[in-house]
From TrEMBL:
Residue stretches spanning the membrane: none
Pfam families: Fer4_16, QueG_DUF1730
Cofactor annotation: [4Fe-4S] cluster; cob(II)alamin
Highest taxon in the source lineage: Bacteria
Binding-site residues for cob(II)alamin, renumbered to this chain: 64, 142, 166, 177, 224, 249-250
Gene (UniProt): queG
Keyword Oxidoreductase: yes
Job of this protein: Catalyzes the conversion of epoxyqueuosine (oQ) to queuosine (Q), which is a hypermodified base found in the wobble positions of tRNA(Asp), tRNA(Asn), tRNA(His) and tRNA(Tyr).
Residue ranges of every copy of the 4Fe-4S ferredoxin-type domain listed in the record: 184-216
Entry protein name: Epoxyqueuosine reductase
Keywords for the protein's UniProt record, in alphabetical order: 4Fe-4S, Cobalamin, Cobalt, Cytoplasm, Iron, Iron-sulfur, Metal-binding, Oxidoreductase, Queuosine biosynthesis, tRNA processing
The protein's annotated pathway: tRNA modification; tRNA-queuosine biosynthesis
The organism of origin for this protein: Luteibacter jiangsuensis
Amino acid sequence: MPVSTAIDYAALAVDIKRWARELGFADAGIAGTDLGDDERYLESWLAEGHHGEMDYMARHGTRRSRPAELEPGTLRVISVRMDYVPPGMPNAWDVINDGEKAYVARYALGRDYHKVMRNRLQKLAARIQERIGDFSYRAYVDSAPVLEKAIARNAGLGWIGKHTVLINKRAGSYFFLGELYTDLPLPVDAPASAHCGSCRRCIDICPTQAIVAPYRLDARRCISYLTIELKGSIPVELREPMGNRVFGCDDCQLICPWNKFAQDATEPDFAPRHSLDGPKLVELFAWSEEEFLSRTEGMAIRRTGYEGWLRNLAVGLGNAPASDEVVAALRERVDHPSAMVREHVLWALARHGALR
């Protein structure tokens, strides 16, 4: 709908950023809708097949890079970020380097961020509505074809690093992004400048060498893709490099020098549930499907599904230090109804020389 010319949009933009912080977002910025360079990058990335089985990346065409095609009438995008690592977490490297434990990406340890952030964005829209009356908007949190990192960069919230993750010079990269598409002609913020320089630590540390060039990620090799998005068997050559990472991977962020500025999360819902910040592989592998569903209720981990969860854990157990406990746990699943699970269990047993 048309918006009133009597509104002071510069003052409204200041208020929106303040309201966002009051609602628990760490930061907010405003971007326009021109994503032409990013559209060309996306087309090139898709053409090279780097999206793997994520067909949805190509299915939506230009709606991903042209906000007004996704939500007609969009003039601006309010981009927000929310820190997700709670205080008092175990050292991530200590978990990764302990082969008996399972590593879950830090973002996935608490409540599913989609619901938390979408709720806050709706509240932000309600505050704007209270101030100016009805306006058109749509809230998105990783739930539609949105180039969220490019939008956040254009809104001044950070730059896209060589690992393709957004980095904020005051807060590192451990944060979620969300967007409010709107028809309000708000003043836009200056895009963030890049500060990676000659650093390539993220490229060098990637366990599966998924960062094939600066700013270029081949998702087919990325542990996050392998443990979450991939629905079939994990390529054999990538199983050993996965180590004990059973849901996602943080290595490229853990090594990033900018994360010395990372901020603790203030949202209690992001606190780890069921001691998943450093559990033993054998304990998780023993979960029944009912236990998996009940203990991951409201969590991002649900996305992998129970079979995918067992597949990932079997790989972790195959890479774990050999022990009677590990072999016994694997043998409990050797006759699992899922052919995919059985395949990975047999691979793990072979790693331990325990095939019968």
